[in-house]
Amino acid sequence: MKISIISTGGTIACKKDDNIHLDSPFKVVDYADENLTRDVDFSFSSPFTVLSENMDFALWQKLIAAVNESESDNIIILHGSDTLAYTSSLLANMFYDKNIVITASDKPIEDETANGISNFNAALMQVLKNQKGVFVSYNGIFSANEIVSADSSDNFLYLGKANEKIPSPRFAPKNILVIKPYINIDYNNYNIDNVDVVLHEMYHSATVPESAKAFAKKCAQKGVAFYFVTSKSSADYESASDIKDKIIYNSTLENAYAKILLSGK
């Protein structure tokens, strides 16, 4: 099988001296299980090299171009873990017809406790199944648009929610303000003058504070699109009864963010 390796940097391409810094973009391939690579014809590209906390729209566009220009539809993308859930959601909503796995490492792979080599081997096994779709290999294999960003234990939470496909997805950058609710949140602290869309996460019970609804009305008056997002399939509490037309259900925040950029919603 022909497999394209696209490296974007991240810890999986780093080494540690006095600090952790970028090193060789494809070195994890040298550590791969030979039983998996024996009949594989690899090609390599690195459209950019970055620590993923510095990922931006311009780099995303380079990554999209690299996937479109790849010599094979069987692709492994090496990425940093910090923004992996955002990138994986974007690609999952664009490339339904390709066989893509995105993987990362929690530490530089020379560290014996790092999961990067096992994640890469698992990515290889997944790609070799020749299953269409985009997946994440990180302590398991997950649908790429159904995970949320890693928590303090370095694990990605998998929600396993069904998602509708976007017809003819096209990346169109927008200025999206993401808000997560917290106790005593003051919406006067948010300047929406240059904002295109507000994406407001709901609490785990699909609820929001009353002040959030007032802020949504303010946004509407200024012509700013506003959406609440929840992983739940419904919002049953009284506090959400009057905002149901503004809720994106069955979605991670990261997937809603990607869909807004791809669908014009």
Task: Compile the SSE list and pairings.
Elements: E1 2-7, E2 14-16, E3 20-22, H1 34-37, E4 41-45, H2 57-68, E5 74-78, H3 84-92, E6 99-103, H4 116-128, E7 133-137, E8 141-143, E9 147-148, E10 157-158, E11 176-179, E12 197-201, H5 210-221, E13 225-229, E14 247-248, H6 253-263
Parallel strand pairs: 1-4, 1-5, 5-6, 6-7, 11-12, 12-13, 13-14
Antiparallel strand pairs: 2-3, 7-8, 9-10
Helix pairs in contact: 3-6
Give the key terms.
265 residues, alpha/beta, 2 domains, four-stranded parallel beta sheet, elongated
* Range of helix content: 10-25%
Spatial arrangement of strands, main beta sheet = 4-1-5-6-7-8
CATH superfamily of the largest domain: L-asparaginase, N-terminal domain
Uncertain segments are none
Q: How many structurally independent domains? A: 2
Number of helices: 6
SSE topology string: EEEHEHEHEHEEEEEEHEEH
Strand portion: 15-25%
Large-scale geometry: elongated
- The CATH architecture of the largest domain: 3-Layer(aba) Sandwich
